[in-house]
Write a structure and sequence with these properties.
The chain is an alpha/beta fold and about 450 residues long. The protein is about 35% helix and about 15% strand. The structure holds pyridoxal-5'-phosphate (PLP).
Length: about 450
């Protein structure tokens, strides 16, 4: 019944319409979840291999997050944040600023999801320079294939041909520089090996030079350097070589530009640190947070900012940040986020994260034993496997074959739900995932690769 109604009345994100409506396609109707598992209306159980699109960090039906939301419901669900505050949002703001643990970040602006957190960061940047004596700083520089969400500003600093080409005329211009994608880098002279390409790349760090050149050319016009720190998700789980983030952020800040970090996917412990930028010596000016912020339970996002930027909006009314959302500072979301942070900051959680990362590391060899695997890369609890037609020369499959999507469809038959980025497969489950569950996920994915390729 829900599937029939869905097909008649709904429209799904990032879902090809004809395939969804095809007579022989049976939509999966999820009715419940528990830990790392999702259950459909027929009682079939699936491992949530991508944390319900990268959101869930504490497992489904976590008792304390659920209890926090229920308790908050008994007080109030939502009240406006325009000219009012509430009991929870300031406490959450303080916790986020403390977690960021950066000298610079002192303020928190709430919104609803990853794209809106980025949109706020971009508009804050533009207005900050416009009203503080540097109106010529209007350019944004961001990474090839970068993805920051689907609102118009967030798309403008994104460079995904597939997702964005149709909207080019409605987007503002932003400059693109090469992504530090060691496996597919044209400057990497190393022959492919059965190892993470970052570990054996031979190059002159042209990816840093490209950023230096961009800023040398017109650094005084650049408002911000915008990046997904250390891991570019939708671009294909591109993992950056150590040091690249710190070096390029230093270049941008030396030229007077702000650094905007998009931690929407990498934040809250996903990539082996509470925030990915904390693995390097970086002091961001603005940071976008969403997804894992509420444990994956409710839509809530935050943009962290420095006091200097915040102060740039003080003065007469005309300097106000005229931007916001009806559900800003939503109490239910804040309650979920505070309960999530309690879990993430507990000693047991760090141990679970380490065990998850170790279980993934132990699985690399299984993937390397498959001839269609060209690269296996990992940052903390994010494991990516890039499939290729010919590993000896990194030749990709013809995109029209949709190999990644077909492997994920086959994995579903083996009890694993995940979505690829092109031909890059992903495992990024909640931190509650056990070693046995990792084993099941890896087994399902390896079988599916064997069946499809
Ligand atoms: C790095 C990054 N930024 C922004 C977004 C957009 O987040 P949302 O889908 O919550 O708007 C995403 C979503 O996947 C993302 O991965």
């Amino acid at each position: 019944m829900p599937a029939a109604l869905d097909r008649k009345y709904l429209w799904h994100p990032f879902t090809p319409t004809d395939a969804w409506l095809a007579a022989d396609y049976e939509p999966t109707v999820i009715v419940s979840g528990d830990g790392s598992w999702l259950v459909d209306e027929r009682g079939r159980r699936y491992l949530d291999g991508n944390s319900s699109i990268w959101t869930n960090v504490v497992g489904h039906r976590n008792a304390s997050v659920s209890a926090a939301i229920k308790a908050q419901l008994d007080r109030i669900a939502h009240s406006s944040f325009l000219g009012l505050t509430n009991e929870l949002a300031p406490v959450l703001g303080k916790r986020l600023v403390e977690l960021a643990d950066s000298d610079g970040l002192t303020r928190c602006f709430f919104s609803d999801d990853g794209a809106t957190a980025m949109e706020a960061a971009l508009k804050i940047t533009h207005q900050f320079f416009a009203q503080n004596g540097q109106p010529r700083r209007t350019k944004f520089v961001s990474l090839s294939a970068g993805y920051h969400g689907d609102t118009v500003g967030a798309m403008s600093v994104g460079h995904s041909r597939l997702f964005h080409h149709c909207y080019r005329q409605m987007l503002f211009e932003s400059d693109e520089v090469m992504s530090p994608y060691c496996y597919r880098c044209p400057f990497n002279k190393a022959k492919p090996r059965r190892a993470d390409a970052r570990s054996y790349a031979r190059c002159g760090r042209e990816c840093v030079a490209a950023v230096e050149q961009k800023f040398a050319a017109d650094g005084e016009r650049v408002a911000a350097w915008v990046i997904e720190p250390r891991v570019q998700g939708a671009a294909g789980f591109i993992m950056h070589p150590d040091g690249w983030l710190a070096e390029t952020c230093a270049v941008a800040q030396r030229h007077g530009a702000l650094v905007i970090l998009d931690e929407v996917m990498t934040g809250f412990g996903r990539a082996g640190a509470m925030f990915a930028w904390q693995k390097e010596a970086v002091s961001p000016d603005l940071v976008a947070l969403a997804k894992g912020l509420t444990g994956g339970y409710l839509p809530l996002a935050a943009t962290l900012s420095t006091e200097k930027i915040f102060n740039g909006f003080r003065g007469d009314t005309g300097r106000t940040f005229f931007h916001g959302h009806s559900y800003t500072g939503n109490q239910l979301g804040c309650a979920a986020a505070l309960a999530t942070l309690d879990i993430l900051q507990s000693a047991g959680c760090a141990d679970r994260q380490r065990r998850l990362a170790a279980a993934f590391a132990a699985a690399h060899e299984r993937f390397w034993s498959l001839s269609a695997v060209g690269d296996v890369r990992q940052e903390g609890g994010v494991l990516a496997v890039e499939l290729v037609k010919n590993a000896a020369d990194r030749e990709p499959f013809d995109p029209s074959l949709r190999v990644g999507a077909r492997v994920c469809a086959a994995a579903k038959e083996h009890g694993l739900l995940t979505r690829p980025a092109g031909d890059v497969l992903l495992l990024m489950p909640p931190y509650t995932t056990t070693e046995e569950e990792v084993e099941l996920m890896v087994g399902a994915l390896c079988r599916a690769i064997g069946e499809v390729v």
